Amino acid sequence: MKNTLLKMAMSLLLILFFSCKEEPKNEEKETAVKSSVSENYNISILVDLSDRISLKKNPNPTMEIYQRDLGYIKTVSEVFTQHLKSKRMRQIDDKMQLFFNPEPENPEINSISKQLRITVNKDNASKEFLNSINDTYAAKTSKIYESAIKDDKYIGSDIWNFFDSKVQDQCIDKGYRNILIILTDGYMFYEGTQIKDGNLSNYLTPQLIKQNGLNTNDWQKKFEDKKLGFIKIDKDLSNLEVLVLGINPSKNNPYEEKVIKEYWRKWLSEMKIKHFEIKNADLPSNMDKIIKDFILEKE
C-alpha cells in the first residue's frame, strides 16, 4: 500500500514539475505575440509627381498610372488602419505621412499633403477617427493627382536629394518601424539638381542608360566595369525599410527594367538598407498582396 502511495506521489510531483517547466515557454510565446502587435509604425509615402502620370505623354488603356498609384496608397492605408485596430488603445502610437520632392508649385497640393500627415496615439485613437483614415486618404490623394494632372506642370522627380537631405529627419524616428514606400517609374530627373561624379549620377533617364551602352546583352558587365550607378549617399539608413512600386521601363530597350532595378538595388544597399523590394507597375489588385506582405512581414 505504501509503495503504491509513494508511486502516486512521485507521479504527481513529476507532472507538476514538467507543467511548471513548460509554463515559461508559453509565457515567452505570448510575450512575442504581444510585442509584435504593439510595434509602432512610421509609414511614409513618397510620390513621384513627374510627367510619368501625364495622361497625354503616358496614356495607359488598361489603367492610368495615377489610378494605379491611388490603388497602392489605398492598400497602404488599409494595412495601417488594420494594424492600429489590432493594438490595445494604450499601445497605439503610429504615424503615416505623404511627401513629394520637389514640392509642387500648386499650393493646394501642398496644403492637402500636410493634412495627410497623421499621428495616432491613445489620446486621439477613437473608433470614429480610425474608421475615417481610409476615406480621408482616398479622397485627398485623389484630389492631389487630379490637381497635378490638371495643372500639367511636371517639374520632375528629385528622389536622390530626398534621400540625401530629408529622409533621415522626416521618415526615421527612434522606437518605430520606419517604412518608406516610393511610387515612381524608376527614373529620376530634376533640372535643379543634376550632378555627375565620374560615371555616377544623381539622376537616371532613358537617354543616360543609352549613353552608357546599357542596351545590349552585356549590360551587367558594362555596369560593373564602368562603375555606374547613382552617386553614393554617405548615410546609414539601416533603420529604414523601402518598398519601390511602379517601375515602368521604356519599351525601346529590352534590358531597361533590369538596368533600372540594378541602379536602385546598388544604391539602397550602399545606404545599408537591408529590407527593400523593387516592383514593376501592375494593377492594384495584383500589388495588394505584395504591399501587405512587405508591411506585415515582421508580424
From TrEMBL:
This is VWFA domain-containing protein. It comes from the Bacteria. It comes from Flavobacterium soyae.
